[in-house]
What does this fold into?
Amino acid sequence: MARKILVADDEEKLRIVIKERLEHAGYDVEMAVDGKDALHKVKKFNPDVIVLDVMMPELDGFQVLEHLKKDKHTMHIPVIMLTALNQSDNVQKGMEHLAHRYITKPFNSQDFLHEIDRCFTEIGDSSAGD
It folds into this structure.
């Protein structure tokens, strides 16, 4: 069974590229267009890992992460922050909100997939991407 990843990013072209790469790697991918959509879809899709853009309409990635970590049903899900904000204070804010990883745009797709795999390794799933 394919592992599930929810990707929330307001940039349509980037969502498409990420979805194609993750699906090619064997993951089941659901997309969200903003923070509110991400919170709605996380309940329906029940992802194993969540990738969140920081700068999104409705709710930004930090706000979504805060909601996820306060909910007993979602607090265990590893979250990768994906953003163009690479200043150290933004990275620190992501880590304070308990993000598992912080990847800055533009990113190398092999490195991105490696970080996804690391999340699955950390949650004890050796079948990641199968």
In short: The beta strands are 4-8, 28-32, 49-53, 79-83, 101-104. Residues 109-122 form the longest helix (14 residues). The first strand starts at residue 4 and ends at 8.
